[in-house]
Amino acid sequence: MREMVSRDMELPLLWEKALKLIGPEKGVVHLATAAILNALWDLWAKQEGKPLWKLLVDMDPKTLLSCIDFRYISDALTEEEAYEILKKGRVGNREREAQLLAHGYPAYTTSCAWLGYSDDTLKQLCSEALKEGWTRFKVKVGADLQDDIRRCRLIRDMIGPEKTLMMDANQRWDVHEAVEWMSQLAEFKPLWIEEPTSPDDILGHAAISKALAPLGIGVATGEQCHNRVIFKQLLQANALQFLQIDSCRLGSINENVSVLLMAQKFGIPVCPHAGGVGLCELVQHLIIFDYIAVSASLENRMCEYVDHLHEHFKYPVIIKKASYMPPEDPGYSTEMKEESVKKHQFPDGEVWTKLLAGQEN
Protein backbone atom coordinates (compact mmCIF):
# COMPACT_ATOMS: atom_id res chain seq x y z
CA MET A 1 0.00 0.00 0.00
CA ARG A 2 2.79 2.39 0.95
CA GLU A 3 4.45 1.80 -2.43
CA MET A 4 1.16 2.46 -4.27
CA VAL A 5 0.61 5.74 -2.40
CA SER A 6 4.19 6.73 -3.08
CA ARG A 7 3.76 6.06 -6.81
CA ASP A 8 0.47 7.99 -6.86
CA MET A 9 2.16 10.96 -5.24
CA GLU A 10 4.98 10.82 -7.77
CA LEU A 11 2.65 10.98 -10.78
CA PRO A 12 1.81 14.69 -10.48
CA LEU A 13 5.51 15.46 -10.11
CA LEU A 14 6.31 13.43 -13.19
CA TRP A 15 3.60 15.21 -15.15
CA GLU A 16 4.94 18.58 -14.01
CA LYS A 17 8.45 17.65 -15.14
CA ALA A 18 7.10 16.36 -18.46
CA LEU A 19 5.20 19.58 -19.09
CA LYS A 20 8.31 21.64 -18.36
CA LEU A 21 10.01 19.81 -21.22
CA ILE A 22 7.50 21.38 -23.63
CA GLY A 23 7.45 24.74 -21.85
CA PRO A 24 7.52 26.59 -19.61
CA GLU A 25 5.71 29.68 -20.88
CA LYS A 26 6.33 28.80 -24.51
CA GLY A 27 5.42 26.23 -27.10
CA VAL A 28 2.41 23.97 -26.79
CA VAL A 29 1.93 24.67 -23.07
CA HIS A 30 1.67 28.40 -23.66
CA LEU A 31 -0.61 27.99 -26.68
CA ALA A 32 -2.91 25.83 -24.57
CA THR A 33 -2.79 28.41 -21.79
CA ALA A 34 -3.81 31.10 -24.27
CA ALA A 35 -6.72 29.00 -25.54
CA ILE A 36 -8.09 28.37 -22.06
CA LEU A 37 -7.64 31.92 -20.82
CA ASN A 38 -9.06 33.40 -24.04
CA ALA A 39 -12.19 31.32 -23.42
CA LEU A 40 -12.40 32.54 -19.82
CA TRP A 41 -12.07 36.18 -20.86
CA ASP A 42 -14.77 35.58 -23.46
CA LEU A 43 -17.07 34.22 -20.74
CA TRP A 44 -16.23 37.09 -18.39
CA ALA A 45 -17.08 39.69 -21.04
CA LYS A 46 -20.30 37.90 -21.95
CA GLN A 47 -21.30 37.73 -18.28
CA GLU A 48 -20.78 41.50 -18.04
CA GLY A 49 -22.70 42.03 -21.30
CA LYS A 50 -19.76 43.87 -22.89
CA PRO A 51 -17.38 43.33 -25.79
CA LEU A 52 -13.97 42.39 -24.40
CA TRP A 53 -12.35 45.72 -25.30
CA LYS A 54 -15.06 47.56 -23.36
CA LEU A 55 -14.62 45.27 -20.36
CA LEU A 56 -10.93 46.18 -20.29
CA VAL A 57 -11.49 49.89 -20.85
CA ASP A 58 -14.03 50.10 -18.01
CA MET A 59 -12.01 47.99 -15.59
CA ASP A 60 -10.40 49.62 -12.57
CA PRO A 61 -6.63 49.83 -13.21
CA LYS A 62 -5.77 47.95 -10.02
CA THR A 63 -8.17 45.15 -10.92
CA LEU A 64 -6.64 44.86 -14.37
CA LEU A 65 -3.11 44.87 -12.99
CA SER A 66 -4.05 42.04 -10.62
CA CYS A 67 -4.45 39.89 -13.75
CA ILE A 68 -0.85 40.50 -14.86
CA ASP A 69 2.18 38.47 -13.83
CA PHE A 70 5.06 40.96 -13.44
CA ARG A 71 7.56 38.20 -12.72
CA TYR A 72 10.59 38.41 -15.04
CA ILE A 73 9.66 41.86 -16.38
CA SER A 74 9.86 44.09 -13.30
CA ASP A 75 13.32 45.28 -14.40
CA ALA A 76 11.61 46.80 -17.44
CA LEU A 77 8.18 47.67 -16.03
CA THR A 78 7.11 47.79 -12.40
CA GLU A 79 3.52 47.44 -11.25
CA GLU A 80 3.67 51.03 -10.04
CA GLU A 81 4.76 52.25 -13.48
CA ALA A 82 2.01 50.21 -15.11
CA TYR A 83 -0.55 51.76 -12.79
CA GLU A 84 0.61 55.27 -13.70
CA ILE A 85 0.30 54.44 -17.42
CA LEU A 86 -3.26 53.19 -16.97
CA LYS A 87 -4.13 56.13 -14.72
CA LYS A 88 -2.86 58.57 -17.34
CA GLY A 89 -4.75 56.63 -20.03
CA ARG A 90 -8.06 57.42 -18.34
CA VAL A 91 -7.67 61.09 -19.29
CA GLY A 92 -9.66 61.63 -22.49
CA ASN A 93 -10.55 57.96 -22.85
CA ARG A 94 -14.26 58.62 -23.43
CA GLU A 95 -13.45 60.95 -26.31
CA ARG A 96 -11.13 58.36 -27.86
CA GLU A 97 -13.79 55.68 -27.43
CA ALA A 98 -16.36 57.86 -29.21
CA GLN A 99 -13.83 58.51 -31.98
CA LEU A 100 -13.29 54.80 -32.60
CA LEU A 101 -16.99 54.03 -32.49
CA ALA A 102 -17.51 56.63 -35.21
CA HIS A 103 -14.45 56.06 -37.40
CA GLY A 104 -12.81 52.77 -36.40
CA TYR A 105 -9.18 51.78 -35.87
CA PRO A 106 -6.84 52.02 -38.91
CA ALA A 107 -5.99 48.75 -40.63
CA TYR A 108 -3.59 47.57 -43.33
CA THR A 109 -4.07 44.79 -45.84
CA THR A 110 -1.85 41.77 -46.39
CA SER A 111 -4.17 40.16 -48.93
CA CYS A 112 -2.82 41.80 -52.09
CA ALA A 113 0.79 40.66 -52.35
CA TRP A 114 1.49 37.13 -51.16
CA LEU A 115 4.49 35.35 -52.65
CA GLY A 116 3.46 33.26 -55.64
CA TYR A 117 0.79 35.64 -56.91
CA SER A 118 1.05 36.41 -60.62
CA ASP A 119 1.51 40.02 -61.66
CA ASP A 120 -2.04 40.07 -63.02
CA THR A 121 -3.45 38.82 -59.70
CA LEU A 122 -1.34 41.30 -57.77
CA LYS A 123 -2.52 44.19 -59.96
CA GLN A 124 -6.15 43.12 -59.71
CA LEU A 125 -6.08 42.81 -55.91
CA CYS A 126 -4.24 46.11 -55.45
CA SER A 127 -6.68 47.86 -57.75
CA GLU A 128 -9.66 46.46 -55.85
CA ALA A 129 -8.11 47.43 -52.51
CA LEU A 130 -7.49 50.98 -53.67
CA LYS A 131 -11.13 51.29 -54.77
CA GLU A 132 -12.19 50.07 -51.30
CA GLY A 133 -10.17 52.83 -49.67
CA TRP A 134 -7.08 50.97 -48.47
CA THR A 135 -4.04 53.18 -47.96
CA ARG A 136 -1.64 50.76 -46.22
CA PHE A 137 -0.28 47.67 -47.97
CA LYS A 138 2.09 44.85 -47.03
CA VAL A 139 4.08 42.77 -49.50
CA LYS A 140 5.83 39.47 -48.85
CA VAL A 141 9.52 39.39 -49.77
CA GLY A 142 12.59 37.22 -49.38
CA ALA A 143 12.44 34.43 -51.97
CA ASP A 144 14.28 36.12 -54.83
CA LEU A 145 15.80 39.61 -54.76
CA GLN A 146 15.20 40.51 -58.40
CA ASP A 147 11.62 39.25 -58.18
CA ASP A 148 11.14 41.31 -55.02
CA ILE A 149 12.44 44.44 -56.76
CA ARG A 150 10.06 43.89 -59.67
CA ARG A 151 7.04 43.20 -57.48
CA CYS A 152 7.73 46.07 -55.09
CA ARG A 153 8.14 48.46 -58.01
CA LEU A 154 4.85 47.25 -59.46
CA ILE A 155 3.03 47.76 -56.16
CA ARG A 156 4.60 51.13 -55.40
CA ASP A 157 3.71 52.36 -58.90
CA MET A 158 0.12 51.24 -58.36
CA ILE A 159 -0.43 52.70 -54.89
CA GLY A 160 1.62 55.84 -55.42
CA PRO A 161 4.27 57.50 -53.25
CA GLU A 162 1.89 58.84 -50.60
CA LYS A 163 0.49 55.51 -49.42
CA THR A 164 2.18 53.29 -46.84
CA LEU A 165 4.09 50.16 -47.87
CA MET A 166 5.42 47.49 -45.51
CA MET A 167 7.47 44.36 -46.24
CA ASP A 168 7.46 40.93 -44.56
CA ALA A 169 10.27 38.39 -44.90
CA ASN A 170 8.81 35.72 -42.59
CA GLN A 171 12.18 34.93 -40.95
CA ARG A 172 14.02 34.13 -44.18
CA TRP A 173 17.40 35.83 -43.75
CA ASP A 174 20.58 35.81 -41.73
CA VAL A 175 21.40 39.18 -40.17
CA HIS A 176 23.86 40.41 -42.79
CA GLU A 177 21.64 39.11 -45.57
CA ALA A 178 18.66 41.05 -44.20
CA VAL A 179 20.64 44.29 -44.21
CA GLU A 180 21.96 43.77 -47.74
CA TRP A 181 18.57 42.69 -49.12
CA MET A 182 16.66 45.59 -47.59
CA SER A 183 19.28 48.06 -48.79
CA GLN A 184 18.29 46.99 -52.29
CA LEU A 185 14.59 47.49 -51.52
CA ALA A 186 14.99 50.83 -49.74
CA GLU A 187 14.11 52.77 -52.91
CA PHE A 188 10.49 51.69 -52.47
CA LYS A 189 10.28 53.48 -49.10
CA PRO A 190 8.99 50.68 -46.86
CA LEU A 191 7.86 51.73 -43.39
CA TRP A 192 9.16 48.47 -41.96
CA ILE A 193 10.63 45.07 -42.67
CA GLU A 194 8.79 42.42 -40.68
CA GLU A 195 10.48 39.33 -39.23
CA PRO A 196 13.76 39.79 -41.13
CA THR A 197 15.49 36.96 -39.25
CA SER A 198 14.91 34.33 -36.57
CA PRO A 199 12.28 35.54 -34.09
CA ASP A 200 14.51 34.34 -31.24
CA ASP A 201 17.53 36.42 -32.32
CA ILE A 202 17.15 39.57 -30.23
CA LEU A 203 20.67 40.85 -30.87
CA GLY A 204 20.27 40.07 -34.57
CA HIS A 205 17.15 42.22 -34.71
CA ALA A 206 19.02 44.95 -32.87
CA ALA A 207 21.85 44.86 -35.43
CA ILE A 208 19.38 45.00 -38.33
CA SER A 209 17.50 47.87 -36.71
CA LYS A 210 20.68 49.87 -36.27
CA ALA A 211 21.84 49.22 -39.83
CA LEU A 212 18.51 50.10 -41.47
CA ALA A 213 17.79 53.22 -39.40
CA PRO A 214 19.73 55.54 -41.77
CA LEU A 215 17.55 54.24 -44.61
CA GLY A 216 14.38 55.15 -42.75
CA ILE A 217 13.29 51.50 -42.48
CA GLY A 218 12.04 50.17 -39.16
CA VAL A 219 11.98 46.59 -37.93
CA ALA A 220 8.70 44.94 -36.95
CA THR A 221 8.42 41.63 -35.14
CA GLY A 222 6.53 39.78 -32.43
CA GLU A 223 4.07 37.32 -33.95
CA GLN A 224 6.35 34.40 -33.03
CA CYS A 225 7.54 35.74 -29.67
CA HIS A 226 7.08 33.09 -26.99
CA ASN A 227 6.24 35.33 -24.07
CA ARG A 228 6.54 38.73 -22.39
CA VAL A 229 10.23 38.11 -21.60
CA ILE A 230 11.21 38.03 -25.27
CA PHE A 231 9.30 41.26 -25.84
CA LYS A 232 11.04 42.79 -22.83
CA GLN A 233 14.45 41.99 -24.28
CA LEU A 234 13.53 43.25 -27.75
CA LEU A 235 12.47 46.54 -26.21
CA GLN A 236 15.52 46.82 -23.95
CA ALA A 237 17.86 46.10 -26.87
CA ASN A 238 16.25 48.69 -29.20
CA ALA A 239 15.68 45.77 -31.54
CA LEU A 240 12.34 46.82 -33.01
CA GLN A 241 10.48 49.95 -34.02
CA PHE A 242 7.06 48.30 -34.38
CA LEU A 243 5.80 45.70 -31.93
CA GLN A 244 3.46 42.95 -33.16
CA ILE A 245 1.48 41.13 -30.49
CA ASP A 246 -0.48 37.96 -31.26
CA SER A 247 -3.71 37.20 -29.41
CA CYS A 248 -3.11 33.42 -29.38
CA ARG A 249 0.69 33.15 -29.09
CA LEU A 250 1.03 34.90 -25.74
CA GLY A 251 -0.79 33.87 -22.57
CA SER A 252 -4.08 35.58 -23.49
CA ILE A 253 -5.18 39.04 -22.34
CA ASN A 254 -3.13 38.80 -19.15
CA GLU A 255 0.22 38.64 -20.91
CA ASN A 256 -0.72 40.79 -23.90
CA VAL A 257 -1.70 43.68 -21.64
CA SER A 258 1.71 43.49 -19.95
CA VAL A 259 3.35 43.79 -23.37
CA LEU A 260 1.13 46.72 -24.35
CA LEU A 261 2.18 48.48 -21.16
CA MET A 262 5.89 47.78 -21.76
CA ALA A 263 5.59 49.07 -25.32
CA GLN A 264 4.01 52.27 -24.02
CA LYS A 265 6.82 52.80 -21.53
CA PHE A 266 9.46 52.33 -24.24
CA GLY A 267 7.56 54.49 -26.76
CA ILE A 268 7.15 51.75 -29.36
CA PRO A 269 3.92 51.62 -31.41
CA VAL A 270 1.95 48.37 -31.38
CA CYS A 271 0.75 47.01 -34.75
CA PRO A 272 -0.76 43.58 -34.04
CA HIS A 273 -0.32 40.45 -36.12
CA ALA A 274 -3.62 39.11 -37.46
CA GLY A 275 -2.67 36.84 -40.37
CA GLY A 276 -4.44 33.67 -39.21
CA VAL A 277 -7.83 32.09 -38.64
CA GLY A 278 -9.79 34.21 -36.16
CA LEU A 279 -6.84 36.44 -35.25
CA CYS A 280 -8.51 39.54 -36.69
CA GLU A 281 -11.58 38.84 -34.58
CA LEU A 282 -9.54 38.58 -31.39
CA VAL A 283 -6.75 41.11 -31.75
CA GLN A 284 -9.10 43.97 -32.63
CA HIS A 285 -10.15 44.03 -28.98
CA LEU A 286 -6.55 44.40 -27.80
CA ILE A 287 -5.60 47.24 -30.12
CA ILE A 288 -8.82 49.14 -29.45
CA PHE A 289 -8.12 48.86 -25.73
CA ASP A 290 -4.54 50.00 -26.33
CA TYR A 291 -5.64 53.21 -28.05
CA ILE A 292 -8.41 54.09 -25.63
CA ALA A 293 -6.69 53.19 -22.34
CA VAL A 294 -2.92 52.89 -22.88
CA SER A 295 -1.22 54.63 -25.80
CA ALA A 296 -3.84 57.31 -26.64
CA SER A 297 -2.14 57.60 -30.03
CA LEU A 298 -2.70 56.49 -33.62
CA GLU A 299 0.67 57.70 -34.89
CA ASN A 300 2.41 54.95 -36.88
CA ARG A 301 -0.19 52.49 -35.55
CA MET A 302 -2.34 50.09 -37.52
CA CYS A 303 -3.71 46.57 -37.26
CA GLU A 304 -3.23 43.85 -39.86
CA TYR A 305 -6.26 42.61 -41.79
CA VAL A 306 -6.46 39.46 -43.90
CA ASP A 307 -9.65 38.88 -45.83
CA HIS A 308 -10.34 35.16 -45.44
CA LEU A 309 -12.26 32.66 -43.27
CA HIS A 310 -14.28 35.28 -41.39
CA GLU A 311 -17.43 33.51 -42.55
CA HIS A 312 -16.82 30.77 -39.98
CA PHE A 313 -17.23 33.14 -37.03
CA LYS A 314 -20.45 34.09 -35.31
CA TYR A 315 -19.22 37.66 -34.79
CA PRO A 316 -16.88 38.44 -37.71
CA VAL A 317 -14.89 41.64 -37.89
CA ILE A 318 -16.46 44.67 -39.52
CA ILE A 319 -14.19 46.72 -41.78
CA LYS A 320 -15.32 50.14 -43.02
CA LYS A 321 -13.11 52.51 -44.98
CA ALA A 322 -10.05 50.38 -44.21
CA SER A 323 -10.69 50.53 -40.46
CA TYR A 324 -11.75 48.05 -37.78
CA MET A 325 -15.12 49.07 -36.36
CA PRO A 326 -15.26 48.26 -32.63
CA PRO A 327 -17.33 45.10 -32.04
CA GLU A 328 -20.52 45.64 -30.07
CA ASP A 329 -21.50 42.04 -29.26
CA PRO A 330 -20.56 40.78 -25.78
CA GLY A 331 -17.45 38.59 -25.56
CA TYR A 332 -14.09 38.20 -27.25
CA SER A 333 -15.50 37.48 -30.76
CA THR A 334 -14.02 33.97 -30.53
CA GLU A 335 -17.18 31.94 -31.05
CA MET A 336 -17.28 29.93 -34.26
CA LYS A 337 -20.43 28.84 -36.05
CA GLU A 338 -21.61 25.40 -34.96
CA GLU A 339 -21.93 24.28 -38.58
CA SER A 340 -18.31 25.23 -39.34
CA VAL A 341 -17.01 23.41 -36.26
CA LYS A 342 -18.98 20.32 -37.18
CA LYS A 343 -17.70 20.29 -40.77
CA HIS A 344 -14.06 20.70 -39.73
CA GLN A 345 -14.05 18.36 -36.72
CA PHE A 346 -11.31 15.72 -36.94
CA PRO A 347 -11.62 13.01 -38.15
CA ASP A 348 -15.36 12.68 -38.81
CA GLY A 349 -16.20 16.14 -40.11
CA GLU A 350 -17.21 16.55 -43.74
CA VAL A 351 -14.01 18.37 -44.69
CA TRP A 352 -11.72 15.72 -43.15
CA THR A 353 -13.81 12.83 -44.46
CA LYS A 354 -13.41 14.06 -48.04
CA LEU A 355 -9.71 14.81 -47.56
CA LEU A 356 -8.90 11.39 -46.07
CA ALA A 357 -11.00 9.62 -48.70
CA GLY A 358 -9.06 11.42 -51.41
CA GLN A 359 -5.75 10.30 -49.94
CA GLU A 360 -6.91 6.68 -49.88
CA ASN A 361 -7.88 6.87 -53.54
Write up this protein:
- 51% of the residues lie in helices and 10% in strands.
- The chain is built from 15 helices and 9 strands.
- Strands 1, 2, 3, 4, 5, 6, 7, 8 and 9 form a 9-stranded mixed sheet that branches.
- Helix 11 (228-236) packs parallel to helix 12.
- The chain is globular and about 55 Å long.
Topology:
Layout: H1 2-21, H2 27-48, H3 52-58, H4 61-65, H5 79-89, H6 93-103, E1 105-113, H7 119-131, E2 136-140, H8 145-159, E3 164-168, H9 175-185, E4 192-194, H10 202-212, E5 218-221, H11 228-236, E6 242-243, H12 252-266, H13 279-295, E7 303-305, E8 319-320, E9 323-324, H14 338-344, H15 350-360
Helix pairs in contact: 3-13, 5-12, 5-13, 6-13, 7-8, 9-10, 11-12, 12-13
Provide a compact summary of the structure.
This protein has 15 helices and 9 strands. It has 361 residues and is α/β, with parallel strands linked by helices. Strands 1, 2, 3, 4, 5, 6, 7, 8 and 9 form a 9-stranded mixed sheet that branches.
Q: Give the percentage of residues in beta strands.
A: 5-15%
Oligomeric grouping of the chains: single chain
Unreliable parts:
1-7
**Radius of gyration, whole Å:** 22 Å
The total count of strands amounts to 9
Task: Characterize the overall form.
Answer: globular
The end-to-end distance, rounded to whole angstroms, is 55 Å
Count of discrete alpha- or pi-helical segments spanning 4 or more residues: 15
Overall pLDDT:
94
* Helix and strand composition category: alpha/beta
Instruction: Please give the share of residues in helix.
Output: 40-55%
Main sheet: strands, sense, barrel: 9 strands, mixed
SSE string: HHHHHHEHEHEHEHEHEHHEEEHH
